[in-house]
Write a structure and sequence with these properties.
Ribonucleotide Reductase Protein R1, domain 1, 21% strand, OB fold (Dihydrolipoamide Acetyltransferase, E2P), Rossmann fold, binds magnesium ion, binds zinc ion, binds guanosine-5'-triphosphate
Length: 353
């Protein structure tokens, strides 16, 4: 095939990217084309033409010892990374990348495209260091459980991360089989869930063990890139297995002595859901980081605080005991939840350390 006869593979999702278009045009030895062609090329012809197009766009699914598994319109490819990218921060699950397929299978990552958002985690080795564990998320699923008891401060930290980064949040309270309807435990949960529902954060009750609430969860994950996060032992892996048994994720036993699950999930990776969408099961973690957030910005990540804190006397008010703070009276009047405010103070202490 001469370069004159090469036609761009319009209709191929990989080709909708400007980078791929430019690369194709270079290869075909012509000026970049503008606008859509009148006739769309589809099917077999597209596959043949895409093979002639040297650059593909894909999404990183996982990384293991320098090898990246990438979803592309040509299927999943195992890729290495190009030398000049090695010095930069490594791509993570969810990163959009440009890659060049190589003869004999696999590919080489050429470029990491800008991230729309990222989920950070405090490094185990050094508290001041953050690692990005997932990029370009749509939905952050905060998984809590009846046992170990819900840690709402953790949920609030994750909701603040979601608000700051622009992911939609969803709270799942798993192991609901352990809190019978009408029990004091269940009434307590209902009251807590009502606070979050009042903030337009959906709260689902599930039992991964008894397939309760699983269909609704499946619906909410459809066509989205989601991450399951929450304390070890709450049942994240069990929930994902209930959604799609083929995933066969490893389930850890809760340690009867400490009430804390062992960290059986060790690496974030995206799994394809049959109904459409991608989901990552994050490891049981110590703490999700708020990145470089300034203490005075934390209150702005609480949507229900915002109308009040815009009235505070000082712009950098931390809403603790400052004169002219407008959040304190709102708290006294019950316009803001005390639970949320206490969790705010706890997260704030971590930021001003
Ligand atoms: N009763 C009850 N137990 C559950 C349910 N879901 C999970 N479990 C149990 O909770 C324990 C922990 O489940 P995992 O799925 O390993 O928890 P995880 O959140 O993935 O934990 P890490 O991988 O350590 O972060 C296991 O013993 C599960 O059998 C549930 O809906 N009800
Ligand atoms: Mg797990
Ligand atoms: Zn204030």
């Amino acid at each position: 095939m001469t370069s004159k006869r090469l036609r761009p593979p319009y209709g191929d999702p990989a080709f909708e990217d400007d980078h791929a278009k430019r690369a194709f045009d270079e290869e075909a030895g012509r000026r970049p084309c503008r606008g859509k062609p009148k006739r769309r090329v589809t099917g077999k012809k597209v596959r043949a033409l895409t093979a002639a197009c040297p650059v593909l766009e894909g999404v990183v699914l996982s990384r293991s010892r320098g090898c990246y598994q990438v979803a592309t319109p040509e299927g999943e490819l195992d890729c290495s990374i190009r030398g000049r990218l090695r010095g930069n921060e490594k791509p993570v699950a969810g990163d959009r990348v440009c890659l060049r397929p190589v003869a004999g299978g696999g590919g080489v990552l050429e470029e990491v495209l800008p991230r729309k958002n990222q989920l950070l985690r405090v490094s185990e080795e050094d508290e001041r260091q953050h690692q990005t564990i997932v990029a370009n998320l749509d939905l952050l699923v905060v998984v809590l459980a009846v046992s170990p008891a819900p840690r709402w401060a953790l949920a609030d930290r994750l909701l603040a991360v979601a608000e700051r980064q622009g992911f939609d949040p969803l709270i799942v309270i798993n192991k609901i089989d352990l809190a019978a309807e009408g029990s004091p435990e269940r009434s307590g949960l209902d009251a807590e869930a009502a606070v979050y529902r009042g903030l337009n954060v959906p709260v689902l009750y599930t039992s991964a063990l008894y397939q309760q609430g699983i269909d609704e969860l499946r619906q909410r994950l459809k066509e989205k890139k989601s991450v399951f996060s929450g304390h070890s032992g709450v049942g994240k892996s069990t929930l994902l297995n209930a959604l799609q048994p083929e995933l066969r994720l490893k389930i850890g036993e809760v340690n009867a002595w400490t009430g804390k699950g062992r960290h059986t999930t060790s690496m974030a990776r995206f799994l394809r859901l049959k109904g459409g969408g991608w989901v990552a099961d994050t490891p049981g973690f110590r703490e999700f980081g708020l990145g470089d957030m300034q203490p005075a910005d934390l209150g702005r990540c609480y949507p229900e605080f915002r109308p009040f804190i815009s009235q505070c006397r000082f712009q950098d008010c931390l809403h603790q005991a400052e004169p002219g703070c407008a959040l304190k009276p709102a708290l006294e009047e019950g316009a803001v939840s005390k639970l949320r405010y206490q969790n705010y103070l706890q997260i704030l202490r971590g930021l001003v350390k």
